[in-house]
Inverse folding.
């Protein structure tokens, strides 16, 4: 039995843990988000209305943009002004295609406005100058008169925008410049100096953090530059095989690959623990956030697509991976303040897939949907049954509990392929109301949604839960996620 004790609330689960990432990569920005005002696809100011409606429904709190690797080759001045006058460039990282720059700073903030989401911009350290980064921040945030504020106004935007989060470089250990940790740490100190706060609102500065288990990177960054940063990023992708040359298929896999994927995604817990422990040494008050600004599954690309576009299908396995990561982020939310799944539309572990005017919600989308009640809630450290580790029910079951607005939200995932997980929860009070009881399940491990069958994997109401006083019981079948919210 899982026991929820009164007062077992330990820390807040920042809604930004449910953040998204949209890069100029393949069909994420172009086609996925931006179709242009003249498109026959319904749009508002060039942004797809169906995509906005779907993303608003899962309460997207913020969107990281413009990359990724793209960020360290992005020159923002090419993406402002009348569209016809914008110069083009080549997207060297992702397929070598022409970047039209039709989607730039103004379009990004229009997207955020439509989504009611916050900004998280990644600045260019790899191939950009300090002055270029400084000018972008001035262009976006300075009220009043200055060369950059005047330029913004000439392009039709009188008021500055809010820029709560700014990343100084991306993967500076790799595509962002192949720097050593000390080289980057010194660059970070220099560049961040000119990420100036012009308005009342502070800008939360995020330094490029480690890849996977590169603990030395974290150590050097924290010892050299912690006092200049608000957040340190972490990137970790789940590959079924663990091999970048042959990652594994998104839809054609057997039981072994399922279990390997689940085991590899659980490595996130070790990464959070060990990077946090290093951060604790330098920052015992947990002022600096650990920002997991790229995570998710990465498979071999969908056959027949441009391999540089990183397109992949998304099955119930991806939904389970998402839920397990949410659970780990919740537990570590005292340090983990934001995460950004890669990526929002049409790329890697996407929420949405598009094909011309058609749109499909993936199983991962529905996992995000099932967890919206955890946004900004208090993490509740519910006690597991004797013999189980915290957060676990037997071998394949996992739970996470939060509290908000006088109600508890309990999510339980069965990451196994056979057998039920029995959830048996003791609450600190009598259950009087069931606000929500939903289940996301699938007929097989490879079940997914297609444009012709968009609702194959979709949550439905959970039948058969039992309440007796303060006791709640329900069953979670293999490869399923259940969320029950009770007051
Ligand atoms: O998300 C795809 C790519 O993965 C990003 O551009 C890069 O930062 C990472 O290597």
């Amino acid at each position: 039995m899982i026991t929820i004790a009164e007062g077992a609330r330990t820390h807040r689960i920042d809604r930004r843990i449910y953040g998204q990432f949209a890069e100029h990569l393949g069909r994420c920005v172009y086609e996925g988000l931006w179709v242009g005002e003249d498109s026959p696809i319904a749009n508002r100011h060039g942004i797809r209305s169906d995509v906005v409606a779907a993303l608003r429904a899962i309460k997207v709190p913020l969107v990281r943009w413009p990359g990724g690797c793209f960020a360290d080759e992005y020159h923002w001045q090419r993406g402002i002004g009348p569209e016809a006058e914008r110069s083009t460039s080549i997207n060297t990282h992702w397929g070598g295609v022409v970047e039209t720059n039709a989607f730039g700073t103004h379009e990004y903030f229009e997207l955020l406005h439509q989504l009611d989401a916050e900004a998280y911009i990644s600045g260019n350290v790899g191939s950009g100058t300090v002055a270029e980064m400084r000018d972008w921040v001035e262009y976006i945030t300075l009220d009043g008169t200055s060369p950059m504020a005047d330029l913004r106004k000439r392009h039709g935007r009188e008021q500055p925008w809010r820029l709560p989060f700014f990343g100084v470089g991306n993967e500076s250990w790799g595509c962002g410049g192949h720097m050593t940790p000390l080289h980057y740490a010194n660059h970070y100190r220099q560049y961040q100096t000119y990420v100036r706060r012009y308005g009342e609102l502070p800008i939360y500065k995020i330094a490029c953090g480690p890849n996977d288990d590169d603990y030395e990177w974290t150590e050097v960054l924290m010892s050299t530059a912690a006092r200049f940063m608000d957040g340190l990023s972490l990137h970790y992708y789940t590959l079924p095989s663990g091999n970048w040359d042959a990652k594994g298929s998104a839809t054609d896999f057997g039981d072994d690959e399922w279990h390997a994927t689940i085991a590899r995604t659980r490595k996130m817990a070790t990464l959070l623990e060990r990077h946090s422990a290093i951060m604790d040494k330098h920052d015992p008050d947990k002022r600096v956030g650990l920002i997991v600004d790229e995570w998710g599954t990465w498979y071999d690309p969908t056959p027949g697509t441009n391999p540089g576009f990183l397109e992949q299908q998304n099955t119930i396995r991806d939904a389970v991976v998402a839920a397990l990561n949410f659970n780990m982020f919740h537990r570590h939310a005292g340090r983990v303040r934001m995460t950004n799944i890669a990526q929002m539309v049409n790329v890697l572990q996407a929420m949405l897939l598009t094909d011309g005017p058609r749109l499909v919600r993936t199983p991962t989308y529905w996992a995000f949907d099932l967890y919206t009640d955890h946004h900004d809630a208090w993490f509740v450290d519910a006690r597991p049954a004797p013999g189980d580790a915290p957060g676990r029910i037997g071998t394949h079951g996992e739970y996470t509990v939060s509290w908000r607005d006088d109600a508890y939200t309990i999510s339980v995932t069965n990451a196994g392929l056979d057998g039920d997980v029995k959830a048996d929860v003791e609450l600190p009070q009598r259950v009087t109301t069931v606000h929500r009881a939903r289940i996301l399940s699938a007929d097989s491990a490879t079940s997914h949604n297609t444009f012709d069958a968009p609702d194959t994997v979709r949550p439905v109401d959970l039948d058969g839960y039992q309440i007796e006083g303060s006791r709640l019981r329900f069953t979670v079948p293999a490869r399923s996620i259940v969320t029950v919210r009770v007051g």
